[in-house]
Amino acid sequence: xxxxxxxxxxxxxxxxxxxxxxxxxxxxxxxxxxxxxxxxxxxxxxxxxxxxxxxxxxxxxxxxxxxxxxxxxxxxxxxxxxxxxxxxxxxxxxxxxxxxxxxxxxxxxxxxxxxxxxxxxxxxxxxxxxxxxxxxxxxxxxxxxxxxxxxxxxxxxxxxxxxxxxxxxxxxxxxxxxxxxxxxxxxxxxxxxxxxxxxxxxxxxxxxxxxxxxxxxxxxxxxxxxxxxxxxxxxxxxxxxxxxxxxxxxxxxxxxxxxxxxxxxxxxxxxxxxxxxxxxxxxxxxxxxxxxxxxxxxxxxxxxxxxxxxxxxxxxxxxxxxxxxxxxxxxxxxxxxxxxxxxxxxxxxxxxxxxxxxxxxxxxxxxxxxxxxxxxxxxxxxxxxxxxxxxxxxxxxxxxxxxxxxxxxxxxxxxxxxxxxxxxxxxxxxxxxxxxxxxxxxxxxxxxxxxxxxxxxxxxxxxxxxxxxxxxxxxxxxxxxxxxxxxxxxxxxxxxxxxxxxxxxxxxxxxxxxxxxxxxxxxxxxxxxxxxxxxxxxxxxxxxxxxxxxxxxxxxxxxxxxxxxxxxxxxxx
Length: 573
Ligand code: FES
Fold this sequence. Notes:
Elements: H1 11-14, H2 19-30, H3 35-38, E1 43-48, H4 60-73, E2 77-82, H5 99-112, E3 117-122, H6 127-138, E4 142-146, E5 153-155, E6 158-160, H7 164-174, H8 180-189, H9 202-213, H10 228-247, H11 251-254, H12 257-269, H13 275-286, H14 293-302, H15 317-322, H16 325-332, H17 349-353, E7 378-382, E8 385-391, E9 402-410, H18 413-419, E10 432-435, H19 456-460, E11 467-470, E12 482-484, E13 504-508, E14 513-516, H20 520-529, H21 540-548
Parallel strand pairs: 1-2, 1-3, 3-4, 9-10, 10-11, 11-12
Antiparallel strand pairs: 5-6, 7-8, 8-12, 9-13, 13-14
The structure holds FE2/S2 (inorganic) cluster.
């Protein structure tokens, strides 16, 4: 039933004939608004993660204006509220360290201010999960506005993809196959418009996941950032959120287990970033739902990879949009989705997919010709990863998916950088590179170090992939036979901490197994000798993070932010 103006949350601030009500109204008037503009109308928070140092969100000021137009036209009152702009390129030691901070900021902005609902503006990797986590916990009506991918990169007429082609050409540069001039020319051509990475990295994956969860308008996640359709989509978000507020449509109304299963199925069908697993586990826990890692494996085994997008495939997100975008892709797999799930436009996923189709069967493959038949992502268990590890098989060398080799162990990223290219490093193409202390606490923040570089002397011999194992994450734009998210992490004494040079490690993806071939007794002896490294933080946000972050298989949220225990609305006195 539609709310009355007096039932709006913001009315608690603007409605009462009290001294506080006077104060709240007078300050809006100070901003130049009339009382009828903001009293008894849905107040929409536009949570904007714009920043001058975030090129992925360079167009967000203009888009916020488009959202405002939509809000005004629908009879609402827009207020733009800035939030932490997690910029993947620049934030160190790892942007992941700050995802939970954005989630807290989003939740507390919405809780403490006189707002009735929110349009959440994000896109660059961690901004999507950060904004959604906060909005789920606050549970006001909310709609997600994905920033959109940037245009294809260009170098001598050749399409360049964010991240993926940097790794590829850097490897060639290290092998001496690319000149300095060519490398410099690429630098000017790879990122040539606002928008997030246009490969199927974490940004494109998480915005697609947001759409599959029902958090965006249909088709919103695939529109390139500079496209005029993106402006109109922003306006539509503004218009729709006002209706959602009157209807009382909240995240808890549509974020069911089935919605999360849709998100996993879409993640698999697009050959999505391995990071999505951590974020989805965290989002689900905010909804009070438990997503076990095995669920990803089960769904992965029955969902084919259909999106022929780098790093798993050949094309880029601009091509994906022209080929039909996410709605086109989802229309290829209706039997693998729960079509009766509700979405923010008030219709079901199935209703939203009516009429959606694919325009290019090479970019979005038909079921009869998938890029990978199934199992694009696998979850591994074994004595090296008792709580699980992840491998993106669609981006790995198939020949290495069953492999046993001796470990070459680095106890930190700095250790690896210092020794990897040393002539005397005992390493062959059969070795297994192991990186320790790069997990949630050890990194800290699980930096994207999981695609360890190939040692130079092997590159020159023509080696382009090796088995690599770590408790780190990997950029969604990366590729290679990289076992990631090993849990528990080495910093807290997980078995990865006990691996030594020369230990044989057996990877068997078809059996979903990751083992170190060392006896139990020897591992116990090593455990007794093991000394935990000390935390880098004695104060500040880093210390809070270190103390309260959960492990990778639990989503790396703060333990006190999980769950659905109610938090009281603020008292207004
Ligand atoms: Fe922003 Fe890749 S750097 S999405």
